[in-house]
# Entry
Amino acid sequence: MKRNNNNKYSLINNNKNNPNQMILMQKVISNLYFFTIASMYFIISILPAIFWLVTTQNSPLDIIAIGFIFPGLAALVSCNLKFIESGNDIQFPVTKKFIEGYKNNFFDVIKFSFIVAVPIYLILANVNFFGEDTATGTIVLSTIFLSILILITTYKILVVTKFSFKTFDLLRVAIYCLIMHFTITLKILATYIAVFFIWPWLGDALFLFSTSVISYFIIKIAFPIYEDVFQTYSKEN
# Structure
């Protein structure tokens, strides 16, 4: 009986004839690398603020620490946005783009970060101080106010990493996006709610390393706002 050697190199031939599998594998590895490194840089950028918040209890100086988290968030969003615009390029220079995102957006973000940090600190300090004695109505109103504040701040960061606006104009654009893109707003809110409930299950360390994935997902949801903002406000700027 003759021995059949036709299948000897079948696996190799399949791989050669199906380069899409190799491309897909490269994309997956590239994305994992990007998300890991971008999250790591974000953690490094906010490490002093996290250290301060962990080692102090309801200090008014927490406002400064909270404020300095936002430039790191802007750098993460900027890096993710450029990664998306590159088509998830496997050679995307994540280190360079994160540093550029931090440096280019720092002063624009720091202008409003402390304004946002004050009510966040007051709400969290009030809940922590009164604990279970906090009135239900107060908790509900605080949650609604904090949710709106976080959504407006999200739009501010999304917009400021792509366009240049004065501080008041940036607020106006953020509120415009919040209302006029209400479906996107609800999707972003749903994402934050899901993250809030998943966070305890992930743990703090894993949550911090997933921030780049969360940022990427939110940018994907909100991507249509960029064209609208450009078309609506380009004549004004």
Remarks:
- The two ends are 82 Å apart (CA to CA).
- Confidence is low (pLDDT under 50) at residues 7-15.
- The chain has one domain: 21-233.
- Residues 19-55 form the longest helix (37 residues).
